[in-house]
Amino acid sequence: MRAFSQSVFLKIIGIVGLLMVLVFIVILANAGFTGMVSLIAKTPTHVVETVKHTVKFDLTPAVTVEVGSTTSTDMMITPTSSAAATGPLRVYPANPRYFTDGTGKIIYLTGSHTWSNFQDNGGSDPPPRFDYSAYLNFLQQNNHNFFRLWVWEQSRWTLETADDNYWFDPMPYERTGPGTALDGKPRFDVTRFNQAYFDRMRSRVIEAGERGIYVSIVLFDGWSVVSEKGGFGQNNPWRGHPFHRDNNINNINGDINNDDSGEEIHEMGISEVTAIQEAYIRKVIDTVNDLDNVLYEISNESHVGSEEWQYHLINFARTYEEGKQKQHPIGMTSTYPNGRNTDLFESPADWISLNGDINNPPTNDGSKVIIADTDHLCGICGDRTWVWKSFTRGENPIFMDGYDGAGYGVGGNGFDFANSTWVSLRRNLGYTLMYANRMNLGLMTPRSDLASTGYCLANPSPSNAEYLVYLPEGGTVTVDLSAAIGTLSVEWFNPSDGQVVSGITTTGGGNRSFPAPFNGDAVLYIFHATNQNLDQKTFLPLLISP
Question: Domain limits at 504?
Fold first, then answer.
């Protein structure tokens, strides 16, 4: 009897001790100390695996918690939905870093664009035909939903090649003569539009829209009107421009200072030219106004000094569309060289593309929708690190893609389509779109203060929290989860191979540290499980095509 009582007493002491330890753990967890999640075991086959997570606080001892199993899945990019693009787009008032289609759905834009996707160009007359359907297939395969539809204003010659037989086709004006232009063909009548040009524009926008892809129509191009730009000047495209005095029958002279360069037509000094440009804009709008997937861009990299002209045309296009069935976003991109980003923020444009440091994207404060384009940052450049930095800073990143290299006279010379850097960059643009559609992006803002890496999109709320964090160097990141309450789901995404590690949980109420379960850069997604944006979800780690 005495032995029995002693045994019972010892068991009671053991239970009380265990309860005290558990209470101590709960107190520590709720006190907001730094948590650390470390992966202890990992199988090489990337299937369901049992792991341990060590929750390590600033105070000792460390507490090891068994959390069951996680799922590791190799994600394959599948083509974008065949659903048509919805719109027209407008700036989302509650979070003007992004567009909405008007139904409340946030539209994040990302993709690859290339110089030949509208006008054929190359070293023959006519130039080689661009395979547009193959290009759209390529965009879908990489889960892209946006591109710039490039326009060249000249019929022949380009700054970036000495090839004297480099042509562009079609052109927007009829070539009626009388007289011969400098390129050897009949002179242009700039009062008569070439309908085939606008038919192609409309058909290409429609075909893209049927695949869920948005198109920004570039209206003018600063590389088409000058004899030299940014150190390039192997040929003079101004000699092939319809507004060159020797190329039209309408007595239009776009070079009033006679320096064999036409910067003046991208300024407000020649009223006759501005009137023709306004007529062209009206024709473009009339051609595509009824389509939902349209954006406009006034000009690609016109010179510093063109700002007043671009502001005027933004306002002109907007006023003209006000009387039409639909209204579409109008953008202004960086002037070049030596463009000033303040001119873009002060413009009446709905969206802008900045110049700057590709390694340190600015944090978008919501003043404008920013479409971050490598074209204006450093040309054909960047990598997947830039993609995630840009995305987590509230931008919409897009890539100036050399694509098939056929446009050798406009930037594509020697481009290696299959280079691993470009392949990974393209795929990660598509990955960001998957996460953008999965998250409640309308509530998320750049919050570099919440993550030790400085790259974080977040909605730090008590019950609907979401945090998307990028680790450029991998390793461990500390995330401030003070605003969140209760249990949150955690998953890791590996940008190098598309692998997702999920099934992890943590708690809100303080700082938590998370070491990545793989080497290299990493993406961390933390969210309340009830906050999944089911209406926009296009990414399901467990439902992946083989």
Answer: 31-74+447-531
**CB count, 10 Å around CB of 275?**
10
**DSSP characters over 244-286:** STTSBSS---S-TT-SS--GGGGSSS-HHHHHHHHHHHHHHHH
Q: What is the pLDDT of residues 485-504, one digit of tens each?
A: 999 999 999 999 999 999 99
Query: pLDDT tens digits for 451-483?
Result: 999 999 999 999 999 999 999 999 999 999 999
Spatial distance between the Cα atoms of 270 and 272, rounded to a whole number of angstroms: 6
Name the strand (E) or helix (H) holding 19: helix 2-30
Let me know if residue 131 belongs to a domain: yes
Cβ partners under 8 Å of residue 146, min gap 6 = 109, 110, 111, 213, 214, 215, 216, 371, 396, 398
Q: How far apart are CA 343 and CA 306, in angstroms?
A: 10
C-alpha span between 170 and 188 (Å, rounded): 13
- Rounded to whole angstroms, the Cα distance separating 44 from 74 reads 12
CATH of the domain at 167: 3.20.20.80
In this structure, what token pair is assigned to residue 189? 């009548």
Listed residue (74, 143, 49) closest to 546, CA to CA: 74
296-337 confidence digits (pLDDT tens): 999 999 999 999 999 999 999 999 999 999 999 999 999 999
| Last-in-domain residue among 388, 410, 438 | 438
Q: What is the chain's mean pLDDT, rounded?
A: 86
- Same domain for 414 and 469, yes or no, is no
Q: Check pLDDT > 50 for residue 10.
A: no
Is the model's pLDDT at 33 over the cut of 90?
no
Pick the closest to residue 292 from 158, 137, 99, 436 (CA basis).
Answer: 99
Residue by residue, DSSP assigns 364-396 as P-SSSEEEEEHHHHTSS---HHHHHHHHHTT-E
| Angle of CA points 377, 204, 299, to nearest 5° | 35
Q: How far, in Å, CA of 401 to CA of 415, rounded?
A: 9
Angstrom distances, CA of residue 144 to CA of 110, 380, 405, 428: 6, 17, 20, 10
Clarify whether residues 420 and 468 are in a common domain.
no
Tell me: do 321 and 394 sit in the same domain: yes
* Measured distance CA(537)–CA(465) in Å, rounded: 17
- At 532 the pLDDT is 57
Last residue of a domain, one of 398, 414, 438: 438
Number of domains, the chain:
2
Residue pair 126/167 in contact (Cβ under 8 Å)? The answer is: yes
Q: Answer whether 474's CB lies under 8 Å from 500's CB.
A: no
Question: Which candidate, 490, 540, 498, places its Cα nearest to that of 520?
Answer: 498
Cβ atoms 340, 352 nearer than 8 A: no
Where do the H-state alpha helices sit in 326-456?
A: 341-345, 374-377, 384-392, 420-438
Asked if the model's pLDDT at residue 419 lies above 50, the reply is yes
